[in-house]
Write a structure and sequence with these properties.
Elements (H helix, E strand, L loop, with lengths): L3 E4 L2 E2 L5 H12 L4 E9 L4 E8 L1 H18 L15 E10 L3 H19 L3 E5 L10 H5 L2 H11 L19 E5 L4 E7 L4 H11 L9 E8 L4 E8 L7 H14 L4 E7 L4 H12 L10 H9 L9 H9 L7 H22 L3 H33 L7 H36 L2 H29 L5 H31 L1
Parallel strand pairs: 5-7, 6-7
Antiparallel strand pairs: 1-4, 1-5, 2-4, 2-5, 3-4, 8-10, 8-11, 9-10
């Protein structure tokens, strides 16, 4: 897959459509760049473009947009509620596909040097690209607005820019360029025009004042809508979800006798963040991303991979000093091999009516190899959520349920394969029976291993309803396994 970088520049104009159209045209003038989204807000007096493509193409598109903004936007005439220090205020580069953060840092520094040299604008590198820790946080650079930054640049050597002159550009101010992980700009609108309330709520919920981790927030007025807003940035939605941030804003608003009129997204949001919010809001117990219609369609329509991992690759991965793939994946592989032997027997014995069901069973067990590894990774991520985060226990409960269900699914499918193996073996030709008997032993081993893992993980489940349902299935599977073992023992006795 080709490397893809996303860029989300913020410009200090949200009222002149002609200027925003010119900025969009500058981006789309570069081949192999896709303009994904554009937003304008007249109260914030700010526009945001989102585009993606190959690193060099995205870098060129970013420079052209910055150059166009420098030509068209005059900060001396700017009045808006959003903090800013430049005509092009901030330009982050985000790794999306087959590229690491180091490449985004390299691109940020390359474009930063070009902007400083060719356009004469002071450039401050932030987040992962920061060369000076004082500049790492965007809010630190914006502190005091243009006047505050100009004063620091004049009197404090720590505030010399990374590139460009040591004074502000006359009309374009300064610019912040950097590299970061995906960020969600998510706002809660309040049904009041009292700006002090929005500011109080922002102070209560943001990380810098002891609120939610990975959450930045400010209070701003929306004059055109006759209300105020808590404008939020979620710097890591895996730590603080959109649902949690919104609930916190609602709780604080309720304390002050104010209703939340609604919320809004600025720019794009990862699908995983919406999935996470849906699961939390609806209290879904057995949600899997494959249950999303569009995800399933995209998977079905995508071209098959040129090559699947070889058995040698899988064995090396199992032997590696890392948690996955582990015992559950190995059990699923053993079960898939048992089902494959069963399918072989059906084909050799010309049992065409059973071939389709056996092929589906084999594929199901094969898919559970990766599903088990994914379930473990999700559980590990849940345990990494800060202990004070109210969403932590729900995330652990759901992830633990998935980590119990997958090995139980493996055990149930392996038992089914074992029953079919026994049935086919009853009437199979003598030369086939040996392979089918080997498959029967493998099915028993896979079912035993899956049950062991499921019974181990269910001990840590704190939700009694989930526990009761899973324990019932475990007991049913245990009975099936005992029946299968008895059939296998009888077959061995008759040899």
């Amino acid at each position: 897959m080709p490397p893809i970088i996303e860029c989300i520049p913020n410009f200090s104009d949200g009222r002149n459509p002609a200027i925003v159209q010119a900025l969009m045209a500058a981006v789309t003038s570069v081949p192999d760049v896709w303009l994904l989204n554009d937003t304008m807000d007249q109260d914030h007096h700010r526009s945001v473009l989102t585009f993606a493509g190959s690193p060099d193409a995205v870098g060129e598109a970013a420079f052209r947009a910055i150059k166009k903004a420098t030509e068209l936007i005059d900060l001396r005439k700017h009045k808006g509620v959003h903090p800013r220090i430049g005509a092009t205020d901030v330009v982050p580069f985000v790794p999306i596909q087959d590229i690491d953060m180091d490449e985004c840092v390299r691109l940020a520094r390359t474009i930063g040097q070009e902007v400083g040299t060719r356009l004469g604008i002071p450039v401050f590198l932030y987040e992962e690209a920061a060369s000076n820790p004082v500049h790492r946080r965007l809010e630190a650079i914006r502190e005091g607005g243009l006047k505050g930054l100009a004063s620091r640049m004049e009197h404090d050597r720590a505030w010399f820019p990374d590139f460009g002159p040591s004074h502000l550009h006359e009309t374009a101010g300064a610019i912040v360029i950097g590299a970061r992980q995906p960020l969600i700009a998510f706002n809660a609108n309040l049904n009041t025009n009292d700006l002090s309330i929005a500011k109080d709520i922002a102070r209560s919920i943001r990380q810098s004042n002891g609120g939610l981790p990975c959450l930045k927030a400010i209070g701003v007025g929306l004059a055109s809508r006759g209300m105020v807003q808590v404008a939020m940035n979620l710097t890591d939605y895996r730590v603080t979800s959109m649902h949690r941030a919104f609930q916190a804003a609602m709780t604080e608003a309720s304390k002050r006798g104010v209703e939340v009129a609604g919320s809004e997204l600025i720019g794009l949001v990862p699908q995983a963040a919406l999935d996470q919010t849906a699961v939390a809001s609806l209290h879904l117990e057995r949600f899997d991303r494959t249950q999303i219609l569009e995800t399933s369609i995209a998977k079905a329509m995508s071209p098959p991979k040129e090559t699947d991992p070889t058995l040698s690759d899988f064995l090396d991965a199992v032997a590696a000093a890392k948690p996955t793939p582990g015992g559950g994946s190995v059990a699923a592989l053993v079960g898939a091999l048992a089902a494959s032997l069963c399918l072989k027997g059906a084909r050799l014995d010309r049992r065409t009516d059973e071939e389709q069901d056996l092929a589906q069973l084999k594929d199901r067990l094969r898919q559970l190899i990766q599903a088990d590894a994914d379930a473990y990774a999700t559980l590990s991520d849940a345990y990494k959520i800060p202990k004070l985060d109210p969403d932590r226990q729900t995330s652990i409960t759901l992830a633990l349920h998935r980590a119990t269900e997958i090995p139980l699914n493996i055990a149930e499918a392996a038992c089914e394969a074992g029953r079919l193996l026994h049935t086919i073996c009853e009437s199979a030709k003598p030369l086939i029976r040996s392979d089918l008997t080997v498959g029967l032993h493998m099915a028993i081993a896979a079912a035993s291993a899956g049950l062991f893992t499921a019974k181990t993980n269910i001990q840590y489940q704190s939700n009694p309803q989930l526990t009761d349902r899973v324990l019932s299935r475990i007991k049913d599977c245990e009975r099936s396994l005992e029946d299968l073992k008895a059939l296998c023992y009888t077959r061995q006795s008759n040899l």
